[in-house]
Write the structure tokens for this entry.
Amino acid sequence: MSVTTSESDKTVTIAVDGRFDFSVHKDFRNAYKDHDSNMSYRVNLSKTEYLDSSALGMLLLLKKHAEGKVVIEKPNDEINRVLTIANFHKVFSIE
């Protein structure tokens, strides 16, 4: 997992590599907890191979922290299918 911050456009990008499950809960939370809620957040899933229900919960917690300013980007077909089944397309912007 990597985190990049752009102060110029007030964006935090969190890239999740490999598995996005409960084993990365602490790292994922630490990636955003010290940033203000006025930041925009992008979760890059281009290198994510697996996503489970705990990851969906973590995304919802991030959305609450960010006051809704979260974009999920570049999910592969399988992860996009999980996001669709969970109706996350109605809750998040997915690019």
In short: The chain has one domain: 2-94. The beta strands are 2-6, 11-15, 18-20, 40-44, 48-51, 70-73, 93-94.
